[in-house]
Amino acid sequence: MTMHHLHGRPVIIGGGIAGLMTALHLAPEPVVLISKTSLGGETSSALAQGGIAASLGGDDCPDRHLADTLAAGDGLCDEKSVRRIVEAAPQAIAHLERLGVRFDQAPDGTLLLGLEAAHSRRRIVHAGGDATGRELIRALVAVVRRTPSITILEGVEVRRLLVEDDEIAGVLAVGNGDATTLSTGRVVLATGGIGGLFDHTTNPLGSFGQGLALAARAGAELADLEFVQFHPTALDGPRRPMPLVSEAVRGEGAILVDERGRRFLADTHGGELAPRDVVARAVWRQFSAGHRVFLDARRCLGPRFAERFPAITLLCREAGIDPAMEPIPVRPAVHYHMGGVAVDAEGRSALRGLWACGEVARTGLHGANRLASNSLIEAVTSAAFVAASVAAASPGTQGRLKPAIVPPRPDASRIRPIASRALCIERDGETLREAARTLAPIAAGRDAASDPALVALMITIAALRREESRGSHFRIDFPRRDVRSRSLRLPMDETLEAAAILSDPVPDPVALLDRRASP
């Protein structure tokens, strides 16, 4: 695979909405967009059923969207970052429409606005009822493919970021079995989330946090890794990734019941539309007590279910379920990662020449618990901020790159049972410590499980350090919220230490906990 003619161009890693939008915002500057599958394929973006949050209604405004986001984030949002994104959201929707995205409209031509959990107003814009992500991918891929300044490399996987003199120097990539290096001083990570580390997930199984592994091994700073959001209502069955039963179904009035038909959230503030962490824990506890859980939409939607949610209807029917006539079996599943590469307002990481956008980035928007439908709007708006920063940055000095060892293709299958047990909805110190000791030697190795193990290890260490329960992170041995706690960061030196695990024999990684992260 020869890429010499592409040297010096900004490189965007990831073919989902964040990567596509960043490439489009950089036009007409020549850029390289690298996707390990076809553009939009096997991305969480394409699977997104929920919509995009933006204050478009006559009874709404960015300040209300801000307040709802801060409340859901449970004290760990960056208010300046939140304000910048929610204020940019309405214009971002208009921009997507100009790019060809077909949002759902009312008969009078205005955008239909839905309600989802913890939103105080109807502000969720959908496309195709419950196929928003698929419609965004369709429209954006079409525009990207006809944009001459974007060079698309599909079926190519970046295995390492190359660093010289503490700044990005290039990428090491593999495609069609051949390895090559591409010299560049500007790299944007848009690689998605970590759901592929878990047995029960709505994410593609290949989304195991490769961007976090790339960043950590390069020396970037990571933050808030312990905050993993479980969606309360994935379709309970053998299919992987697990089909999502969108929160919008509960927004239309569907209720959660056990196998006896008992509504177990009846006395919970907000009921089925309480914050996701509250609903997910309630469902998890039903499973832990030996019950099954169902989402019952028969009374609120009944025969209208197929019209309102055509994609979910098809998924249910493929599983032998008619949601108009019977409750839908559901269970919690890993859905979104609030933590990621620590970036500033422009998407810049602490490592010169490296930016991050979308789910792989920690912008400060989500805090400890993402507000529903804020993820897509973060990817769309942040892409513009990142692109402007990349365009204004120096391309760096282009030189001959040093030879690099090509790591094997990552495989998370060995790590899923470990992460699923230790990093579940309700965590405890003993199980986390056991997982850290198991993961450390795997992360220190050089086999297919090493990168997934590294990501799981870093999340585990962060979960051990947070000795409280807050947002999506719940410790049964520390069930109370600590009002003094702040975001936990892994500075460069600690990230490198966790990434390399020092030496062989491997020291106890839990010793890292003796140095508490500073606020």
TrEMBL record:
Its main location: cytoplasm. It comes from the Bacteria. InterPro entries: FAD-dep_OxRdtase_2_FAD-bd, FAD/NAD-bd_sf, Fum_R/Succ_DH_flav-like_C_sf, Fum_Rdtase/Succ_DH_flav-like_C, NadB, Succ_DH/fumarate_Rdtase_cat_sf. Keywords: FAD, Flavoprotein, Oxidoreductase, Pyridine nucleotide biosynthesis. Its cofactor is FAD. Pathway: Cofactor biosynthesis; NAD(+) biosynthesis; iminoaspartate from L-aspartate (oxidase route): step 1/1. Residues 455-482 form the Fumarate reductase/succinate dehydrogenase flavoprotein-like C-terminal domain. Residues 11-376 form the FAD-dependent oxidoreductase 2 FAD-binding domain. One of its GO terms (molecular function) is L-aspartate oxidase activity. Pfam families: FAD_binding_2 (PF00890), Succ_DH_flav_C (PF02910). Its EC number is 1.4.3.16. Belongs to the FAD-dependent oxidoreductase 2 family. NadB subfamily. This is L-aspartate oxidase. It comes from Mesorhizobium album.
